[in-house]
Amino acid sequence: MSNKPLSGHVAVVTGASRGAGRGIALELGAAGATVYVTGRSTRTQAAAGYGQILALSKTEALPGSIDDTAEEVTRAGGRGIAVRCDHTREDEVEALFERVAREQQGRLDLLVNNAWGGHETFNGVFDAPFWQHPLSHWDSMMDRGVRNHLIASRCAAPRFVERQRGLIVTTTYWDRGHYLKGNLFYDLAKSAMVRLAFDIAQELKPHGVASVALSPGWMRTEFVLLGHETDEAHWHERPPLARTESPRYLGRAVAALAADPRVMERTGEALRVGDLARTYGFTDVDGRQPAPFEL
Fold first, then answer.
1. How far from the centroid of its chain's Cα atoms is residue 278's Cα?
2. Which of 50, 186, 249, 280 is catalytic?
3. Which PANTHER family match (predicted)?
């Protein structure tokens, strides 16, 4: 198999300034894809709304930008294109897909729904009864999380239908339907994303377009590393991080799905990265193959 199995493919990865989106974009680039890297954070203008989590992380600067990620995609072997887009704004999302269609002669192979507003209301409390969590979590996780994915899918769908092919991957959290006790809002939003991916699959299946929900384990995102006062080079020194995986492990799962000519057989499914690693034979960046994260 070619070491650039996605050469010629065009992908849009939303919320790719940092974390999961960045890891996905880099692995798609390593596989040879042209990747539109979207989000609100640029080198000259950081996204608003992160003051609370930045204070909890004891840092002033928001890590990452779409510009940084796009350049890394190109260095990895693909072509990275940074496009600032507020995914809560339908007009901006539609303009994004119009640009992709114009620049790529109508080609679009992959949409990764990853833009997530949940960090904007994170207050350091994860495990608490639902009546003790702020109602603002609904706005950040549902209106600026689930809704983001619906808008992007809605704008991308006509492009996929026209070509009678394509794949939508929605990043989420899923452990076989088990309840994530202690954070009802998070559990509800992530469960809604799983159902959204399933529902979209039903409507797009007749057109040869696949839709799946994809769940990573506990990722060593920039904010997780900051919270444990470490970095990617030294995370091994923090025992609580022993079960973590890099965002690029998730990225390799997305790249494997995008390169699979039989991906339609998985449409509508909720998938776990650890399971796909065994199916497709990929590892994390350190050579390990972390098992699926389970509660």
1. 20
2. 186
3. DEHYDROGENASE/REDUCTASE SDR FAMILY MEMBER 1, DEHYDROGENASE_REDUCTASE SDR FAMILY MEMBER 1
